[in-house]
Amino acid sequence: MLEAETRDGRTRDPDERFAARTLDLDLLLYDAQRIDAPGLVVPHPRLHERAFALTPLADLAPDVLHPVLGVTVGALAAKHAGESGIRRWHQPLSLPVKAGLPGGRRAR
What we know:
The protein is mainly alpha-helical. It contains three helices and two strands; from the N terminus they run H-E-E-H-H.
């Protein structure tokens, strides 16, 4: 992800942690894993505080549990709804249903 940011022209100034940037990619969750390594913490340490990340994540996966807090992404998003001025420009996409998954399940 850091390589993708760099390829797109992102530069990092260690003295300006919250400066404006052209691109900022964050790994929010990785299944139910907890990772605490130099340069990588998963789930994102401030995910539960950020409506701008929770709102679209809840559109995609509202029932996914935050692996540290044990609360669904949908519940976290609802808790912060309207707090930071997040609003949708359009309704979430309605993806076509596809057949043919193992076990007769249908993908969306």
